[in-house]
Specification:
alpha/beta; S-adenosyl-L-methionine; metal ion binding; single chain; Radical SAM protein with 4Fe4S-binding SPASM domain; four-stranded mixed sheet; Aldolase_TIM; about 300 residues; globular
Length: about 300
């Protein structure tokens, strides 16, 4: 890591663009539930268009090959124009990827989503009944409607967007493991699901105590070289256009720039990013976002 330069010649990728940080759920494993204090809002179409156009200008290969995740610390389907934004990316040749909760897949929303031609959908359905769903996602009487709407969505996808890939996603932590075992029998062999995925539990930037308590134990290393490569690889963008080092920054602790009035190229080698790279290269990381992150020295 010490050999990595503060100035990077290769262009950035965009890991994710947060369409909104509004969310109807109270997920116990999400830092948004417990600790997010920043204002809520939605990304405008004009700003989203600028982001996609700028991504294509600065790194067309990554934009067209890898696409971009269109979610952050919110449920993107509550954005009133989520489909317009997603369709703009798809029409521009940028694969649109999204993580959603199937409870929101009412018929109109489902049709709008599929009409926007997402390349990949992570469908998150933790729990195995109403009680376990409420314990994890914070919404009562919601598992059965979620299950029913997801099955209806899979049928609709065959008609409207057969190329869209579906990954069924659950999060691996103690309170969910019984449900994961039960869910395999329900979902793993469903033909329309391309992958049954158990995602590792994350503690985000390590600054959310209630989330940290849910982890099996400490991850990463307190000593040794910094191994996180995000400052040399990609950026995350909040709904208001602020650019962040990674998708773990739920409260905009480390803002690197603003795409509303800067280009990605300017931000990528701007002073805040150069300072972050120098800090990582030094091996002594004390900024409020990264210092407690278990991915810093993974």
């Amino acid at each position: 890591m010490s050999m990595r330069s503060e100035i990077v010649g290769t262009p950035p990728a965009i890991f994710n663009v947060e369409l909104t940080n509004r969310c109807p759920f109270r997920c116990i494993m999400c830092a948004r539930t417990h600790n997010m204090t920043r204002p809520e809002g939605v990304m405008s179409f004009a700003l989203f268009r600028k982001v996609i156009d700028d991504f294509l200008a600065v790194n067309p290969q990554a934009a067209r090959r890898d696409g971009v995740w269109l979610h952050g610390f919110g449920e993107s389907l509550v954005h009133p124009e989520f489909d317009r934004l997603m369709a703009y990316a798809s029409d521009a040749g940028v694969p649109a990827k999204l993580s959603i909760n199937p409870l929101l897949l009412k018929p109109e929303i489902a049709r709008r989503l599929l009409a926007a031609r997402p390349a990949l959908l992570y469908v998150s359905l933790d729990g195995h009944d109403d009680a376990s769903f409420e314990q994890i996602r914070g919404v009562p009487n919601a598992f059965e409607p979620s299950r029913r709407r997801f099955l209806e969505f899979l049928d609709l996808k065959k008609q409207l967007s057969p190329a869209t890939r579906i990954h069924f996603s659950m999060i691996d932590f103690a309170r969910n493991r019984d449900s994961i075992a039960k869910a395999r029998g329900l979902w793993e062999d469903v033909e329309a699901i391309d992958r049954f995925q158990v995602k590792p539990f994350v503690t985000w930037d390590g600054n959310a105590p209630d989330v940290n308590l849910l982890a099996d134990g400490p991850r990463g290393r307190a000593e040794g070289p910094v191994t996180c490569g995000f400052p040399w690889q990609s950026l995350a963008i909040a709904w208001n256009g602020r650019v962040l080092p990674c998708c773990y920054d739920y409260d905009e602790r480390l803002v690197l720039g603003d795409v509303a009035n800067q280009t990605l190229a300017e931000i990528w080698n701007g002073e805040p990013m150069r300072r972050l790279r120098a800090e990582f290269a030094s091996g002594t990381v004390d900024n409020p976002l990264c210092r407690n992150c278990d991915q810093l020295r993974a």
